[in-house]
Every structure is written in C-alpha cells, then in structure tokens.
Amino acid sequence: MSVDPATLAASILGASAVRTAPRSHPHHELPLVAPASREECVELVRAAASARIGIHVLGGGSALRGAPTSGHALILCTERLDRVLAHERDDLTFTAEAGLRVLRAQAGLRPHGQRLALAPRAEGSTLGGTVARAADGWTRKSTGFVRDQVLGIEVVTGAGKRITGGGRVVKNVSGFDLCRLFTGARASLGILLSLTFRLRSVPETRRVTRHAAADLAHAFSAARSIDQRIPDAEVLRVTRHEDGRASLLLSLAGARARVDAAIRSADDALPRGEVLAPEALEGTHHCVLRVDVQPAHTERASHVLAGLTRALRIDADIATGTIEAFSVEVQPFTEDERALLARGLSGLEALVDFPGDARAHLRREAAFGATPAEHYPVLQRLWRHFDPAGILEPGVHPWK
Amino acid sequence: MLPAHAPEFFTTLRTLLGPERCITDQGLLLPWECDGLSHLRQLPIAVLLPETRAEVVEIVRLAAEHGIPLTARGAGTCLSGGATAAQGGALIAFTRMKRILEIDPVNRTARVEPGLVNVRLSEALKPLGLAYMPDPSSQTASTLGGNVAENSGGPHCIKHGNTTMSVLALEVVLADGSVIELGHARGRTEGPDLRGLFVGSEGTLGIVTSITFRLERIPPAELTLLASFADMRSACNGVSSVIAHGILPSAFEAIDDRTIAALEHAGKKSGYPSNAAAVLLLEFDGAAESVRAEADAATALLRAAGALRIEEAEDAAQRARLWKGRKGAYGAMGRLAPDLYVMDTVVPRSRLPEVLPAIGRICDELGLPLANVFHAGEGNLHPNISFDGRNPDQVRRVLEAGRRIVEVCLKAGGALSGEHGIGTEKREFMPLAFGPETIELLHGLKAVFDPGRLLNPDKVLPEPVTCGEMRPAVLRGRSA
Ligand SMILES: Cc1cc2nc3c(=O)[nH]c(=O)nc-3n(C[C@H](O)[C@H](O)[C@H](O)COP(=O)(O)OP(=O)(O)OC[C@H]3O[C@@H](n4cnc5c(N)ncnc54)[C@H](O)[C@@H]3O)c2cc1C
C-alpha cells in the first residue's frame, strides 16, 4: 500500500513542518516540508526512498518552472538548514548548511573583510541551490566557476546515505572529487546538506564605471581593447539595453595603487564613464536565457540574441564567453524564437540554457549543446548508483 | 607468472604494436617496477606503448576481454605508488603520445596528448605570450596526463589552482573501450561535472587520450621576495598574517633549516642565510603596480612577524637566484640517503605552527632524518624523510612515521593529500578521512565506470572490508 507523502513527512518531522506550497510555486499541489536539521533531512530521504516517494528540492525558490512531477512526491525545502558551522577567518574558509542564503552569508562575512566568490541571482538564493545549479554570475571572470569555490560537501544521496567529499582545507586531492561531481548536478544524485567554501578578501578598493557606446559592435571593440590593456579587470561586460543602447561596464578592484593605475589606463582608452555604486554588481536579476560559447564567439552570439524581438537586456562577458539575457517578461520562448536561436548559434558550439523553464530545459536539442546522448548510459549508471529508487528530482534531467 | 590466457593477448598486441612497443622481456621490464614511491614495487607483465587513440582503444578492449589489469603511466614520477602495475597487470605508457594537437591563441586553449611533458607545453606557449600555469616541481619530467590523473599542484598553484582548474575537457577511453568526451572547450557544460570527477581519479575510472587546457596570458610583471626567520613558528605566523590580510601571492613556499643544510651538504650554493631556521619564498604576478603594492604590504607584514632579512628581486636572473635553493632542494635531499619518502598532507594554514613541531617530534622519536619544503600558503606540507629502502627496519619506521604524520594532520582538520594523490601509499588511510558510507559509495562509483576492476585496480580506495573491520596498511619493503 502506498504511503501518503504528507503523512510520512509529518511522522518524521512533526505536523508543523509540513505545509502546502504557496500557489505561486510550480508544484503547489505537493506538500512542502522543511526539515529542521540535517539529521531530519537524512531520515526523511531514507523513509522516502523506501516508500518510493519522489522529492523535489527547493532552495531559494528558484525551482524549475514546469518540471514534471509525479503526484506521489513532496517538496523538500532547505530553508531551516541555515546554520553557519565554521568560519575560519585566518584560513579563509567557511562552512554552512545548504539552506543558508548567499546574501545572508555575505552580510555575515563583510565585517571581517571577507566574501564568498558567489553571485546570487535572487534574494533567496541559497548556498546549496547555487552550487547544485552551478549558478555563477559577475564574479566568474575574476574568481572562476562555482565548481572552483567548493572545498567540501556533505550530502544525503537518494539512497539515504550520508556522505562527505573534500574537506575544510584549501587544497585536497583525496579520493574522487565529489565536490565537482555535485556542482551542477542539481539534486539529481543527492541533496547537499552542508558545504565548505574558500573565501576571498574584500578588495581594498573598487571602481565600477559604465561607458556608453554607439552600438553593440563598438562596445565589443572597446571591451577588447580594455581586455588587452587591463587583463585582470574584475568585470568587463558589454551590455545591450532593452531600448537598444549599448554600453560597457568595467569594474577595477584590488590594491589602491593598482586600481589607480588601471583607471589611468582605462581613461586613456575609453570615453568618460558614469561612476556606479559598487552594489551595481551585486544586483539580482531574472535571467531568462543564458548562452555560453568560447570567448572568440561572444560577439557573434550576442548579435543573435539581440536579433530576438522581445525586449531583453543582454550582458556579454568577452573573457568567459557568457551571454545572459534578462527580462521582466517570463513567457517561455516561442518556437520561432528557438528556431532563430538555433539557426544563429549553429556552428558556435553554444550551450543554451533557459533558467527557470523546465520544459525548455528538458527539450534540450543538440543545437543547444545538450548533454550528448552517448553520455546517457554513464549518467544513468551513475544516477542508479546514487539514487537506486529514482526518487530525486524525477524529470529534471533528460537522462533521468 | 603470466595468466593462462595471456599468450593470445600478447600475440594480438605484438601484431598491433610491433615487438618494440609491446615489452615483455623481464630484463627490460625492471625499470618499470615502481614509480617515485620506490619502496613499493611490482613488476608489470608487459609495458605497452600506444601511439594513437585507436591503439589505446584496442589495448583496453583486449585487456577487458582477457581480464588483464591495466595501469596508465606517464613519466612514473608519481609519489604515491599510483603508476605501479597491479599484480598480473600491464602498464600502458604514454611516452609516445606526446603531440600538441592544437593551440588556440584567441580563445587561449591548448589540446594535447597525455604523454606531453609539462614544461614542453610552456615552452611552446611562451612565444605566443601564453602560459600553462600548474607547475609541479617535477615539470621537466612529469607528463600532463599524469598531472591530470593526480590533479597535481605546484608552487604557483596557490593563485592559479591545481591542475583541475586549467582542464576544460578530456577525451577518455572507458573500461569497455568506448570513447567519451567530458567537459567542453567553452568551459561550461550541463549536469554533473564528470570532467571534474575524472581529474584526480588516478587512472582508476578511465584512460585519458587528450586534454584541452585553459591558458593564461604571461603576466606583465613578476616580483620575488625571500624572507628569512630565526624560527619556523615566526615564519608560519608570517604566512598566516599575509594570507589573512587578503594578499594572494602567486607562490608562497617555505624551506626549513634542515633543507638548507642538505643544500650546503650537497655543495649547492642556495644563497639562503645560514643562520636562518626557515625561509619563505613569495612571488607576485600581475600588473606592475599591483605587484609592487602587494609586495610592499607583504614585506611589512613579514617584518612584523619577525623576519630577519628580506630580499627582493624583479628581473628574471635575480628571481632565478632566489628560487635556486627551492628548486635544488629535492636533488640535495636525494644525496643524503638512497631513498627519499616525500610525504604530502594538508593542514589549515593557521595550524602550521603546532603541526610542524609535532611532525618533527614523530621523526625524532623514530630516529628518522626529516626536512621540510612545502607550499606554506596552502598549508600543504611535504615532510621529506631520507632512508635506505634495503633496510627493513628503516622501512618499517618510515611507514610508522607516515601513519602518525597523517593522523596528526587529520586531527588538525587537514586532508590526506594536497597534490600527490592517494595511490597505494595512502589507500588504507582513507577510512581515517572518510566514513564507511562514503567509502562504500566511492567503491560503487569506481564500479559504475569500471565494473571489472581492471583500470588501475587496488589504488585510491581501501580494500573493501566487512562491517567496521579495518585492515592495517599493507606496504611491502623493497627487500621483501
Ligand atoms: C622530484 C619530484 C617532484 C615532484 N613535485 C611535485 C609537485 O610539485 N606537485 C605535484 O603535484 N606533484 C609533484 N610530484 C609528483 C608527480 O610528479 C606528479 O604526481 C605527476 O603529475 C605525475 O606525472 P607522471 O607523468 O610522472 O605520471 P605517472 O607517475 O606515470 O602516473 C601518475 C598517475 O597518473 C595516471 N595516469 C598517467 N597517465 C594517464 C592517462 N593518460 N590516463 C589516465 N591516467 C593516467 C597513472 O595511472 C598514475 O595513477 C613530484 C615528483 C617528483 C619525483
């Protein structure tokens, strides 16, 4: 006889930990449960695995819109797993539970002159959600991918096993690199319970400027010239605004002497810019389309996105080849738009992602850099190993 | 002894590779008996030298068919026993697959075969103003395939990261002979990061046949500092202070007095002050102004920590002079005794001042000569113990010291290895760092990729044991 998910959760976590999801939530028909501790979370996953109850993990509320669900499932919300477990100031490491919001963690670190090299996309983005989705942002040019920030993880697998990977030191090659395996895996193999990150020092000084350009092509050419002059600029981003204007955003950060010299070099090469508050970098936006290409293709790919008729703000990073489009409109992209993208990007070996739109995600055609089909057998074996009952995030990956 | 079905394996391989690339003669196999961990030895049944990916695929298929374990081998400089053959197994050596397949200066990537020696890539990139950053001290000998398999580090990895941070994509031959491309030259892929899983897996999950690396531009300016201290504790405090102030040098190395003595003994003029109990080497790279600003700030902090003397060098010749002692350290130590056990552990940087004396005490108690050269900025220790592998009692004491050092480092919140990997050396210590559920999961992960346990078996993971039982470290002395 099948066990009711809400009843099962209430028997482990108590009735008060089980509620219905808000109507705005994509799976609002499912019970939403919030374990109060990592132990409770492990217990819940074990029980769900033996009762074959599906689990959708909710971190900061940025769950995939439209992901298929089975009725026999629950939403596991990590909001109460938000404790800081260790902050080793002198060693620049930070360990916290996965449900801690990135912005809260940053606020706690700021008085110590330290920060995580993460750039959350939403107010509510959590440490676990950011790593599970490998959601990088403005810090990527200067500090690298999300996968390079994680030093250690604690996970409950779909089989209910509580495992650890990495550790709490900045260098570690002991055994297989589970930290990287779990970065970007969403919750398909296991649920992140806690994580250790390397920290960075807040730079002594930072100057952020925006420089207007005649059009997108001019903005790119200015960006290339700055990239030659100041290779270690913190952010160098070409923007096509919703109204068609183009500009270049430049952030210079570090020791004062260095930033002063870089400013002089930039001022020689660029028209005078508008100085922005450093917080301009931190802004959280709703990204509707993300394209990754090799750096040399950034300009071409940006023009393809600019060719879409909907009003999008397009940010392109020539150092990493990442182009992101932001919009207030969250309507799924139409067949025509997808076809235009596929045609324009063909030959660029682009990876195209529609954050937040699960249907688009699941339809990932080869033109959009989807996981090649020859990977499926390996991924399926991997998945069966971590989640033999197939309860975690049923349907978020095409190979699951 | 050859497995009963081996003759067929060899006949096919001799036809495929020719006799000179399929070595089975006992005498010729002797140099392949061990890697850099010289007290662990195992003669391979054969050494196979493929020249193409297709040959690698054929070798892997045949090995699977005949149940022959295969261990990939680069230059054999591994210090954890990972490149030594399994019992009854063959080595697949990449010495002949060493081409640079492509350098893309615009996107700053390079695709190479795994047998390419690390420094050869840097040499090819230099005229283009580009650099491949990970620089293990063995870079003039070790191969990029070996570096990827070990996730090697080096003096300049504190800023630029271990090898994994430079790997964009890998072409891998899986245990069944199928070929798979992991990662992508653009950097980002969707789903679990299989590329990341394979880097550092020590050849136990698949065999790498080509690697795409991310490159950097050669930094416009570099500056080196050498700071000497009257005692190691002050030097360690200097390390913590610089890091805690948010200064990130591109290299941050430490050398102790015993190493300085070994350099003098070997007649290598290090130029390091003879009254120094510890020397720190720091390097800064980047724009000229930032290099100057960071070096000035670091100098002030090192003085405050008690530095006796600080030297500075900007031009290449002067910088090379300051690095001379560091680069010559292993050669000098190698002259103290027939064998050198180069250990590799990590502790949180702030624990260095208490862990280093503890390691010194362990070696003193066991009557073993110890010298430390290490990546101080990352808390990555290399206790180096000189010994004679022909003396079983010395081997026993060295192994005992190894275990106790690992225990001290783990107790301080550290890790088993920062760059040399687990191999055979530390596989039985894995349960000290990871719980039984994790170890079991790692065994299962290995089986996902290599169900027949033919790819570098008996490395990295401890022998599977039943509930709670732990086997003692099984290490064979050279005389055994
Ligand atoms: C003097 C000295 C200094 C050293 N300094 C450093 C240092 O600073 N930092 C550091 O990290 N290490 C250092 N090492 C250790 C060693 O050089 C590194 O581990 C190096 O990466 C090994 O490369 P190799 O080509 O010798 O590989 P090998 O020793 O031949 O093999 C190492 C591992 O890689 C696997 N492997 C090799 N090729 C492949 C392939 N194509 N596919 C899959 N697996 C493969 C092998 O099976 C083995 O497990 C040093 C060693 C010595 C002797």
Description:
The complex is a heterodimer of chains A (400) and B (480). Chain A contains twelve helices and 18 strands. Chain A has 400 residues and is α+β, with helices and mostly antiparallel strands. In chain A, the strands form three sheets. In chain A, strands 14-11-13-12-16-17-15-18 form an eight-stranded antiparallel β-sheet. In chain A, strands 5, 6, 7, 8, 9 and 10 form a six-stranded antiparallel β-sheet that branches. Chain A is globular. The mean pLDDT of chain A is 90. Chain B is an alpha+beta fold. The longest helix of chain B has 20 residues. In chain B, the strands form five sheets. A seven-stranded antiparallel β-sheet of chain B has the order 15-12-14-13-18-20-16, with helices on both faces. Chain B has a five-stranded antiparallel β-sheet with strand order 5-6-10-8-9. In chain B, helix 8 crosses helix 10 and helix 8 packs antiparallel against helix 12. Chains A and B meet through strand 9, helix 6, helix 8 and helix 12 of A and helix 7, helix 8, helix 10 and helix 15 of B. Flavin-adenine dinucleotide binds next to strand 3, helix 5 and strand 10 of chain B.
